[in-house]
Every structure is written in C-alpha cells, then in structure tokens.
Design brief:
UVR_dom; 13 helices; 331 residues; globular; alpha+beta; 5-stranded antiparallel sheet; Hemimethylated_DNA-bd_dom; two-stranded antiparallel ribbon; coiled coil
Length: 331
Amino acid sequence: MVQSQSLSTLTICGSVKVSSLLRNRLNSSKASSLIGDRCVSCQFLRKSPSFRSHWKSIKQRNLLRVEARWPFQGGGGEQGLDPSSERSESANEDILIFFFQLDLATRVQYAMNLEQYDIAQQLREKLTEVEEESIRLQEGKRGSSAKSEAQDKGISIIRLRADLQNAIDSEDYGLAAKLRDEISKLEAESLAVSAKALAFENAEYAFRLGQKLRHKTFGYRAVVCGMDPICCESSSWMEAAEVEKLPRGSNQPFYQVLVDARTHPDLVVAYVAEDNLLAPEKPDKERFDHPYISFLYYGADTAGDFIPVKQLREKYNRPRHEVPFDSQEED
C-alpha cells in the first residue's frame, strides 16, 4: 500500500515538492496520523530493495559510460541543450498528487473493510480536499477556467463600451480615450483565453497514454503518462527549453513522459513537445525501468506499450486502447 508522511515529503530524490497550498491544507497532525509514515514517491523503492540497488548501479555505470550520440541530434546539441532542459517539476508534482489520491482512496476502502467507519470518514474528507484542489489546479492549467474567464472579460467589455458611449456623449474625450485603451487590452486578453479554452476542447494527440516513444534529439526512450494540448509550463521554462524554436512552438501538444532509468537515471519526468517525439516503427518490447511504472500502469500489452490504470485514463479523459488483433501472429 502506498504510504506518505505528509505532502511535504512527496519528493523524488529530494528535488520536487507538491503544491504548497495543497500541502498547507492537508499537513495537519490528524492528517499525518491517518496517512502514515512513508514517502509516496519512494515507496516503490522501499518495497523493492533490489530495484533501489539496481537504480544505484545504473547511475554508477552512467558515470563511466562514454555517451553515444543519437543520429538525429544536432539542433539541440548546437544550442547547448541537454535532456535536463525538459525536466519538469510541475509535471512530477502533478504525478505525485495523483499517487496521493490513489493512496487515500485505497485507505478509505481498507478502513471500510475493517468497519472503521470514523477513520474512513476522516480519510474521505481528506480525499475530497485533495480532489478539489487537484481539480482547481487542473482547471487553471488546462483551460477549463479559461472559458468562464473569457465570458467575464466579455461582460466587462460590454460595460466599458457603455461607459465609453456615455463619455463620448458628454464630450469627456480624455475619459473616452482611457476607456478605449482599456477595452482594447481586455479584447486582446479575452482572445488569448478563448484560444486556450478552444485548444483544450478540440485537442488532438498523435500519441496516447502508456505508449513507448523515443526523443528525436536526445534519443532516450520514454513512456507517455500525461498530456496537454499546448505547453502549460512557465515562460521561463519555455525560454530555457527553447520552445519557440520548435517548428510548432508552444501551440502544440506537450507530453509528460517517464524516462527510462537505464539511460537517464536523473531525469525522472520530462515535459516534451510532440515535435520532439517519435513512435517506434516496430513494437518496443525491451525492458523499461522507472519507479512510477507500477503505480500508473497495469502492465504491458502485446505490442510492448503500457496499459494505463483506469484512474489515469479518467484524469485525461482518454479511451481505452485496444491492440489490433494480428491473425498472422497466431498462425
């Protein structure tokens, strides 16, 4: 069972922390006593000591290994970029909060099975808080709130236009000029938020949850664990990753991907543009190491891709993928 001391301990390799607001809301003594005493993101490693030692040996080998260049590498290398430029703390935080939700839901069911109804109710209340905060964060990130924001701006524009007409009728041209500038600013902002909301409603993705891919520039293998129709990272992150130099810039799908620990043990979660990802020509059935795999996927399908858990599919509103039946393989 996944356990956690508090949301302040939800880190991977001590580098990433979850939302401070969510942490402050839930990091009470009551919540801590109900939730347990272990770190969610590192529980898999504690459960499997052999994996932990394997992870350490991977990192040691990489220190001695001569780095081989991926054939497509060029643009990134010339610009001085490396895989760490696409490291995303917000993406990792998003995954850790998802783990915490799964853990609380499991604990609620466990308490119910033991007929500990008071504890189950307290856990359910904490789970509701986490879910509400997660939804709020997702709405702010993914444009669900952009539609209502655009509507609010539209109402403000209508009122300002009425004020503008009154200012013109009263020949207060100084006020009219000021109102006109304010209307122009609101119209530009309204257009931007409307475009964001539209992008999320009409999103089309080339890749799916659980699919194994390869990075075009850096060559590492990755598995999709999340997706956005446009880049939702900060402007400073986009500048560091040189997103605007991509063929489609920031207005294209971006994917949260788990990176194979055998090649890049320090790059846990990356946020990668669709332009930078390639699907393998043949099924990739090679081993893939990552501490999050057992939490996010049921296992691998016959094509070698991972099968996302139901809750992950529901989070991104993605359908279940069925592997096409190949009669030749049976023969």
